[in-house]
Amino acid sequence: MTEAAPIVFVVDDDPSVRRAIKRLLESVGLEVQSFGSAPEFLHGIPHAPSCLVLDIRLPGISGLDFQRQLAEANIHIPIIFITGHGDIPMSVRAMKAGAVEFFTKPFRDQDLLDAIHISIEQDRARRQREAEIATLRERFESLSAREREVIAMVVSGMLNKHIAAEIGTTENTVKVHRSRAREKMQAKSLADLVKMVERLKIPLKRAS
Predict the structure, then answer these.
(1) Which residues contact 175 (CB under 8 A, 6 or more apart)?
(2) How do residues 39-52 score in pLDDT, each as one tens digit?
(3) pTM of this prediction?
């Protein structure tokens, strides 16, 4: 499946700043959407690698408060702050909350472009990880209840004979469940299966 083209969102209440940044980004082939306030932006988040160039001082809500609201809403988008009235405590707060960069106007065009490319790559990697986890989750959900139980025990380090005793069956039956589960999960090896289960954070039955 072809990945959607990356997009950069610009939220700044100064139309001249929005136009200048839009021209800069479009000059290097980036798609841009600009907004004059934070609420406007919420209607345009795409399913594509993206980042947000966000002014600190906005009408209605500050950029820092909006950053917090996005995090609380589970909207994960790399943020690059720009401001004409920044200070060190403000920049520290933004960076601690996960901002990629914090620029004080005027800033170098190349510095902004570099930060945007880093942000888009971060978002692309995050989306890929989430897609992989969703695929693994779908495979895990295809397992029977017994297969899930056996795999949790296998991954925790229990031997087939101990698993058989635990669930009241034979070793051969455990081997069958284990083989089918590994096939459904498309795991190439036990080590591969262990990594998959760890990524899914499946609760394990610990060996005694």
Answers:
(1) 160
(2) 888 776 777 899 99
(3) 0.81
